[in-house]
Amino acid sequence: MIIRRLSETLVLVSDEGWADPAQLARALNASIYPGVEEVVAAYETLGVYGRPQNGWEDWIASHASALESKAPGARRHEIPVCYEIGEDLDDVARELGQGREEVIAHHLDAVYHCFAVGFQPGFGYLGPLAPPLRGLPRRTSPRTRVEPGAVGICQNQTAVYPSASPGGWNLIGRCPLCLVDVDSSYFPIEAGDLVQFRRISEVEFARLRWQRLN
Question: What is the SS3 string spanning 71-126?
């Protein structure tokens, strides 16, 4: 286990043996250790917030071992996407040397792991992309406003913007659903979840507008 103290109240912990840090973070938060305020997962690390009392390393190790023996299944979500209203789809296809339908097919073909949630509430970093879609950088001129539900790709990841915000990812489609509601603490996608996209028409996009994911 590798431990790095980033501040008086934050320790970064990682271990090559962890199959799913997000599942481990959930287990740890369900049986919190004295002095620990919260455990947050991102990619291959855990952030331990607070001032944990002695023995907290053993607390993490024991939960990690228990999870390995149980092998819990990740939650899965299906997110509808209308690619016909993807603002950058033509540019993405041209940049990748593919047709529009090829880009769409590659995006639909993968089951994505939510590595982390950040940037804005409910923004899940999903990946990895299928090899034919990888490597696109951020737009040279980020948009000052990306509409809620916009589906973007960048480098080796994809994401859905849950709320309107500035953004520089390449937008290839749009999801009609409500994916976050801060006031009611509605955050359906968490680190460790699995996500697959489903293609829908503009008619279905209008029918599903603002419905919740689950």
Answer: CCCCCEEEEEEEHHHCCCHHHHHHHHCCCHHHHHHHHHHCCEEEEEECCCCCCEEE
pLDDT tier, 74 (very low <50, low <70, confident <90, very high otherwise)? confident
CB under 8 Å to 42, separation ≥6 — which residues?
Answer: 21, 115, 116, 118, 191
Do 186 and 144 belong together in one domain? Answer: yes
User: Contact, 153 vs 172, CB < 8 A?
Assistant: yes
Structural domain boundaries enclosing 38 = 2-70
The predicted-structure confidence for 126-154, as pLDDT tens digits, reads as follows 999 999 999 999 999 999 999 999 999 99
In 3D, which of 136, 167, 171 has the Cα closest to residue 150?
171
Q: What is the pTM of this model?
A: 0.75
User: For the stretch 146-171, what's the b/e string if a residue is b when 16 or more beta carbons lie within 10 angstroms of its beta carbon?
Assistant: bebbbbbbbeebbbbbbbebebebbb
62 and 147 inside one domain = no
Mean pLDDT of 89-102: 96
Q: Kindly report the backbone phi and psi dihedral angles of residue 157, in degrees, each rounded to the nearest multiple of 5, phi listed first.
A: -135, 160
